[in-house]
Design a protein that fits this description.
The protein is 21% helix and 37% strand. By secondary structure, the protein is of the alpha+beta class. It has a single domain, classed as Hotdog Thioesterase (Thiol Ester Dehydrase, Chain A). Strand 3 and strand 4 (102-112) form a beta hairpin. It is elongated. The N and C termini lie far apart (35 Å).
Length: 130
């Protein structure tokens, strides 16, 4: 579980150069119809990434990290994530295949909020160069 903190949202928005006031200021977020600051959509990479790290270090899978590159990443968004939300992420390796001498591993993550509603579905593809 990952509890979304206001300051983490603000730090992330500043780090990626997104000056949208709904990510930085409670009053601006409230004026836009939110209870408090909301997370930029790409903040999903923060709360949904921990299972990816576990997969990359899985001893059974034994990926050659020296030859691994991040191939693709797609997100499908559900409810807006805001400060105070508690996000739970579950993951599954959905595909492992070889193509043109390279191995591909694709993982899906499903992140839901404390109400059980979808926050984000992620699809992460990694390429292991042979």
């Amino acid at each position: 579980m990952y509890e979304i903190g206001k300051e983490k949202i603000r730090e992330y928005a500043r780090a990626v150069g997104d000056k949208n006031p709904v990510y930085l200021d409670d009053e601006a977020a409230e004026n836009a119809g939110y209870d408090c600051v909301v997370a930029p959509p790409t903040f999903a990479a923060v709360y949904a990434a921990w299972p990816v790290g576990e997969m990359l270090l899985d001893k059974e899978l034994a990926l050659n990290l020296m030859m691994l590159v991040h191939g693709e990443q797609d997100f499908e968004f559900g409810e807006v994530v805001s400060a105070g939300d508690v996000i739970t992420t579950e993951s599954e390796i959905v595909e492992i295949y070889e193509k043109a001498g390279k191995d591909f591993v694709t993982m899906e993550t499903i992140s839901t909020n404390q109400k059980g509603n979808l926050a984000c579905k992620g699809r992460w593809t990694f390429v292991i160069r042979g």
